[in-house]
Amino acid sequence: MAGDERLGLGEYLRRHRSEMTPRDRAGSSALSHRRVPGLRRQEIADVAGISVDYYIRLEQGRASRPSREILTALARAFRLSSAERDHLFRLAGERPPQPRAPAAEIRPGLQLLLDSLNHTMPVTIHDGRLDVLALNAAAAELVGPVFGGGPYGYNIVHQVFTSTGLREVLGNEGAEQLARAAASELRKALSLYPEDERLRSLFRELVASSPEFISHWDRGEIGTWRSAMKRFNHPTRGPLDFDSEMLHDPESDHWVMLFTPRRA
After folding, report:
1. HTH cro/C1-type domain: from which residue to which, for each copy (predicted)?
2. Can you give the pLDDT at residue 264?
3. Can you tell me whether residue 85 is helix, strand or coil?
4. Measured between alpha carbons, how far is residue 68 from residues 33, 93, 174 in Å?
């Protein structure tokens, strides 16, 4: 780790330590009052499970490159958010740890966005495993028939290659476009979450049951289609055209898909 990187790491640690208060220390009672802001170096070292001498050298930019285990311990001691933890790793010259799974719950702000657009446009939210977590009333009316029961009932990739109602909703061209995107998205998801048994099981099932999936998978594509024009066959209003746009919440690995109606 170069000298300027060590200094950057040390400054980052000092700033976070100065912003902490005794009550931030997990499992401890209030400590003695003192004029210097933040926690003592000894207190942070104790929580992280490292020697105070080594921690002091980290803050002063004199320590060797810290291991990933030490960085993880420091992130836990400082109670860093995922973004703050990732920055800590980068300052130390390490790649940030890969998340084990997307967040299970939608942020309240995203849920509010979803609900507030009920009568404006269809909106769906799915996670990095391609599981639909929520859809507003307009989206349920538009794409609800696509989803079914079973363990993968709300997984986009599974429904793309197994749903009998997909082509009725999207037409042949739209269904083919979505199938291509779905296979590439699953490849990305498996790369991001290689130990996720749900994704691995889904992949095995599609390989065993869907020649169409195998055909798209063998193309080797990976990526995200952020923008697209989609035509839906609405159950009561007939063909409707939408411009779709995908927005990403990286902290949770949630994707918001907005369908803006096209003007006639």
Report:
1. 38-85
2. 63
3. helix
4. 34, 10, 45
